[in-house]
What we know:
Distance between the termini: 46 Å
Structural class: alpha/beta
Main location: cytoplasm
Pfam family, one: CTP_transf_like
Protein name: Phosphopantetheine adenylyltransferase
CATH architecture: 3-Layer(aba) Sandwich
Organism: Bacillus carboniphilus
Shape: globular
Oligomer: single chain
Pathway: Cofactor biosynthesis; coenzyme A biosynthesis; CoA from (R)-pantothenate: step 4/5
Amino acid sequence: MGKxxxxxxxxxxxxxxxxxxxxxxxxxxxxIYVCVLNNASKQPLFSVEERMDLIREVTKDIHNVKVDSxxxxxxxxxxxxxxxxxxxxxxxxxxxxxxxxITSMNKVLYDELDTLFMMxxxxxSFLSSSIVKEVAKYNGDISDLVPEPVEKALKQKFNN
Length: 160
């Protein structure tokens, strides 16, 4: 069995910041499951299936990436796919405190699962899906923030 990681997130939508973490993780792990969180408490712009389709499109050339979704505890999903690790991207120190709490709880629930934190590239340190959606909503230029298929999907959402 190889090194398998789960890269979880809402990905509403996937940004170049997310893609940076996925690409770098793909160099470290034999397989990466990019998993869209199906969180009923959030009101996403894109459906789970739309988010998965966008991720598949922008990662199609990364041979060891699989796209999936999950609901419930991440550790249960990690067990299901025999993952050794979780990959989490950090933009700023403020992300670390929240991620540390989640990581500590995951360790209590499943001690064999490690979390690998990766700092995003500096040029993406401000980037979030929320910011991208806000700029796209008002017809701002997001071409440097998201891959082209995501830009098109956002324009379509906000022009309807």
